[in-house]
Amino acid sequence: MRRSWGLEEAQLSEGDRRVLDERIADMHTNPNVGVSLDELMAKVRAGR
Predict the structure, then answer these.
(1) Domain residue ranges of the chain, discontinuous segments joined by +
(2) CA–centroid distance for 26 within its chain
(3) What is the C-alpha separation between 18 and 30, in angstroms, rounded?
(4) What share of the chain is helix, strand, coil (3-state, %, to 5)?
(5) What are 2-46's pLDDT values in tens digits?
(6) Looking at residue 31, what is its pLDDT?
């Protein structure tokens, strides 16, 4: 499931944009690291 957070309209500093770009690049380079938002929300709802 793809979600749009409206980053195009967000007022971000150049530093914030750089951090986001680095994290997005890392996510694409290492797709099996971490959990999806849906998995995280299921864990939160389960109280874990």
Answers:
(1) 14-45
(2) 11
(3) 18
(4) 50, 0, 50
(5) 556 665 667 888 999 899 899 889 989 998 888 888 999 999 999
(6) 86
